[in-house]
Design goal:
Number of strands: 4
Number of helices: 2
Number of domains: 1
Strand order of the largest sheet: 1-2-3-4
Distance between the termini: 28 Å
Order of helices and strands: EEEHEH
Radius of gyration: 14 Å
Shape: elongated
């Protein structure tokens, strides 16, 4: 399955035309916050699932192993 993971939520292509649809939201983020950051009218599932926050081990992996020069991650 293909997904686009952002700093606000998760987008997945719909089955028919491949348009990205909002399927998950991070805690404290509203669908309108995600839509404000894209260049089109964003569709979403009727109830996008709540995703969990990143834990300390995952953050360490991201920062120290996957992006130690901070080319993609800011903090």
């Amino acid at each position: 399955m293909q997904r686009v993971i952002t700093d606000k939520g998760v987008l997945e292509p719909d089955g028919a035309g491949g348009e990205l649809v909002l399927t998950g939201l991070y805690p404290g983020v509203a669908a309108a916050d995600v839509e404000a950051g894209v260049g089109w009218t964003l569709r979403s599932r009727p109830s996008p699932r709540a995703t969990r926050s990143t834990d300390a081990v995952e953050l360490q992996l991201l920062r120290e192993v996957l992006d130690p020069k901070r080319l993609y991650l800011r903090s």
